[in-house]
Amino acid sequence: MNNQEEFRRDPEETQEQKLHSGKNKLIVSFSPHLHKDESVSKIMWMVVISLIPAGVAGIFIFGQGALWVILLGIVAALITEWIVQLFAKRRVSVLDGSAFLTGLLLAYNLPPKVPFWLPIVGSVFAIAIGKQVFGGLGQNIFNPALTGRVFLMASWPKYMTTFTSPLLAGAGFTKPLNYDAITSATPLAALKEGKVLEHISHWNLFWGIRGGCIGEVCIFALLLGALFLFIRGYISWHIPITYIFAVGLFTYVFGPKGLFTPPLRAGAGFSGDWLFHILSGGLILGAFFMATDYVTTPLTRKGQIIFGIGCGLITAIIRLWGGYPEGVSYAILMMNAATPIIDRYTKSRIYGTR
Amino acid sequence: MNAAQFLTIFISAVFIYNVILSRFLGLCSFVAISKETKPAMAMSLSVMFVTTMSSIITWFIYKFLLIPFGLTYLRTISFILVIATFVQFVEMVIRKISPPLYRFFGIYLPLITVNCAVLGVAVLNVDMFFINGRATPGSFYYSLFQGICVGLGYALAMLLMSGIRERLDLCDVPKAVKDFPLAFIIASIMSLSFLGFNGFRF
Amino acid sequence: MKKYFYEFLKGIIKENPTFVLVLGLCPTLAVSVSVINGIGMGIAATFVLLGSNVIISLIKNIIPDRIRIPCFIVVIATFVTITEMMMKAYSPVLDRALGIYVPLIVVNCIVLGRAEAYAQKQTVLNSLFDGLGMGVGFTLALILISGIREFLGAGKILGHTLVKGFQPAFVLGMPSGALLVIGLLLGFFNVLKNRRE
Q1: Which of A247, A341, B64, C122 satisfies CB 3.0 to 4.6 Å to C126 for a cystine?
Q2: B116 at C interface, C-beta within 8 A
Q3: Per-domain residue ranges for chain C?
């Protein structure tokens, strides 16, 4: 089949592999190009750096326990990658920053007070199944951190949905089945149950004074990091902006008491409040840092816009009418699955072919 | 009979309760035929044809044969026979039109008969659109439409999976997981992501 | 005699219906949540396989090719009904445990698959041993998968909790988990196979 021939010239694959081996810096490939002559490794570490403010904010808001979750996630990811690559007799590339990033992002997607083994198991799954089983960096279809997260969510829902109040100092590890912590719901969870959230203002959401996962709550810190990545040209605006815009528009139109009110169950509290939806949950974290992962998202601009809109629609639909209060992880993973097909039908013409 | 019901059926059957990724029916052919897109789409078309036609016929059989004679407990066997006949018909057609395709499908074409998705949609129609042994208004059109949509949902899952597998075919995946093991793992992650649609309420 | 033994053996390893032929997934996913269900289903399916393979092999020359599939279905459905009734009579506990999956043996790809690919072309004795081998292979696969799923997903084996304080991963009780377990097992078997070569 001749479209298979097209695929063999896939720039993503050639570029990744060549850069990875560090042998040949001169690459001839067709657009889209990365305009910086950066190695994959440097990009990964830059993304890690851009995520540091969010982590610091999370630790500040939720206490010392959050730091442990982050460290455990990262270390487990590194060790898993090292062991798997050793066992599979592949080049050990643990220091390229991608495993570090996966562990970090996974930890950012966890509640601050979880059993110590949870980030470990999650990282092991994320690296071993989410990434290495496909053959390593550049070949995975799904975002590894999110793969780990939904695995944890399906396996231990209780631990994954027990959140603590912000500004709780001295948080340690949870004892299994016997919590002392003051638990509180996330704003989205409360909204799903139809509760009115009077004390949560948009400013609270922006600074992160609310329940939630470690790395998702402080929008300010996340935006700082995203700005850094934009300025340096490591991410393009297409996916995050279309994603966020789609969520905002959809929740404005279809949110309870929004512009159109289909015969849905009446919602209390925030209604058609697009700003609330943009600022809450894992949307900012997901849109800027996980939906922009080069490997698992479309290559072309057109494809990226489709990707962003798809993620936005699914996220909004799950938030408004699904059983879960938050849909970012599921939306991104579903669109990851669609990326090969999107790529295929939006591929730019190879120069010289018909 | 209203438009909202049709919309609900479409969204449920194709996305929210996707026959392969959420209901886990029709997996044998899903894992086996999804390696390349063209055969995957051909299989999806065949399955869609069978689900649609069997939705129609099983509706008639249930309403005019099984209920009046009190034989509703024979529903599984009679539905399966209907489906089996249709698949035989489809097999003859494909054999005539495209012998290479027929050979490629191999065992999986007659296996559409026992494709849980096909029997599943027939049983689902009966469960959803017949209450207390009487057909709800418009149930024929709903059943027919649901048959089509289940086929579409099957096609969607096949399309996604074949796109993924075709791309991975060009990558250097570990030898031990090539083909089937990786296909299962991909299916596992895909269905994990579709868990996001759980508990849906319009 | 050795030839028949080979027919039997191939169903267990070389052409294991679950891991090699990749058939019968739907019931495997649904039933392999606990070991007891796995064993029960395996035994029931083996009986149906035996019966249908033998009968179909006996009547293969009488069935017109054009309507062979519906004919196979009738034979298979008959044996499934017999199995269902016997189970209700002699082992109601097991029947309740397996629920609707006993009648669903009718749509187990393995049964129709073997009828189509083998029994309609081979002698009765070959078909008998093939059916037996496939059934045993299926049962063993079920035991393996459900053992893993029950232990890691529910913390029990055969209904008994083994390790206290172990937090089971619920995902393994879901079909996603089943797909994962089967995929990993397949990969593991491949590693063993590659090692041996």
Answers
A1: C122
A2: yes
A3: 2-196
CB–CB contact B184 C68 (8 Å): no
Whole-number Å distance between alpha carbons of A110 and A122: 10
Asked if A219 and A207 touch (Cβ cutoff 8 Å), the reply is yes
Residue B166 to residue A331, Cβ atoms within 8 A: no
Helices (H), C11-67: 25-31, 35-59
pLDDT tens, position by position, B26-57: 888 888 888 888 888 888 988 898 899 989 98
Domain ranges of chain B: 36-163
Q: What is the mean pLDDT of residues A328-344?
A: 93
**Taking a C-beta distance cutoff of 8 angstroms, is the pair A308, A269 a contact?**
no
Residue B157 has pLDDT above 90, yes or no: yes
Q: Which amino acid is at A266?
A: A
Q: How close does chain B come to A192, measured CA to CA in Å?
A: 12
Q: What does the alpha-carbon distance between residue A160 and residue A137 come to, in Å, rounded to a whole number?
A: 27
Select from A14, A141, A319 the residue whose CB has the most chain B CBs within 10 Å, as the one to mutate to test that interface: A141
Residue-wise burial string across B155-165, b where 16 or more C-beta atoms lie within 10 A, e elsewhere: bbbbbbbbbbb
- Chains sharing 3 or more CB pairs under 8 A with chain B: A, C
Closest alpha carbon to C134 in C3, C11, C38, C4: C11
Mean pLDDT of chain A: 78
Selection from C171, A128, A15, A102 nearest residue B193 by Cα: C171
User: Touching check for B200 and chain C: CB below 8 Å?
Assistant: no
Q: Rounded distance, CA C48 to CA B160, Å? A: 36
How many separate helices (H) and strands (E) can be counted in chain A?
16, 0
Secondary structure class of A62 (helix, strand, coil) = helix
- Cβ neighbours of B25 in C, within 8 Å: 26
Size of interface A-C (CB pairs under 8 A): 20
Read off the pLDDT of residues A244-266 as tens digits, 9 standing for 90 and up. Answer: 999 988 888 777 655 444 444 44
